[in-house]
Recover the amino acids of this structure.
């Protein structure tokens, strides 16, 4: 990843991305070339190290059959937004401003492991379901469906686990711009209804 010093994310940025992870791109380099799958994932912390990412793919998806050459990569995206020069105070003084795109993202590398075990798969399915159903007025659970139906669906998927070896986190949020420009961009994002990007930019203080 192209990662200038002033855009390097810190531990808080990494924690935000992992905690808020919903779905991401899993990319593997194989002997047949690159193979990518967009899929729901959940982060499982560990007592030591960076933990793992857990998910599943359709059995008909060849991704799990193709042995990776080296590490696999998961690309996670946090808040992002277009920044118009009209929000910068500098536009009114020198005019020396241009559009940009602010964002929080991470490249997560690690060994990809495959799980073709219905017990492992059901645990991950329940974890993913609970993650996304929590907070709903009437949350759906795996137990709401007939047992035979669930067993049949579990046979149609295969589990994937990325054991995280390293993360590159990029937080591009105008850290080196004048404070008046930063505040103008934050205000503009809020007025535009892009609250997640505005909040992320507010937390990402200049270094």
């Amino acid at each position: 990843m192209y990662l200038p010093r002033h855009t390097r994310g810190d531990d808080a940025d990494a924690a935000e991305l992992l905690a808020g992870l919903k779905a991401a791109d899993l990319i593997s380099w194989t002997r047949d070339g690159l193979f990518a799958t967009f899929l729901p994932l959940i982060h499982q912390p560990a007592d030591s190290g960076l933990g793992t990412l857990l998910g599943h793919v359709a059995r008909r998806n060849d991704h799990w059959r193709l042995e990776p050459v080296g590490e696999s990569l998961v690309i996670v995206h946090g808040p992002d937004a277009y920044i118009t020069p009209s929000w910068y105070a500098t536009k009114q003084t020198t005019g020396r401003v241009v559009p940009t795109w602010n964002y929080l993202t991470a490249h997560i590398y690690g060994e990809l492991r495959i799980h073709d075990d219905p017990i492992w798969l059901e645990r991950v399915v329940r974890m993913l379901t609970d993650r996304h159903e929590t907070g709903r007025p009437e949350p759906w659970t795996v137990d709401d469906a007939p047992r035979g139906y669930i067993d049949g669906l579990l046979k149609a998927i295969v589990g994937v686990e990325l054991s995280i070896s390293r993360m590159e986190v990029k937080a591009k949020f105008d850290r080196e711009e004048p404070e008046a420009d930063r505040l103008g961009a934050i205000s503009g994002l809020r007025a535009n209804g892009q609250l997640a990007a505005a909040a992320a930019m507010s937390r990402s203080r200049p270094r």
In short: The mean pLDDT is 95. Residues 5-197 form a domain with the Pnp Oxidase; Chain A fold (CATH 2.30.110.10).
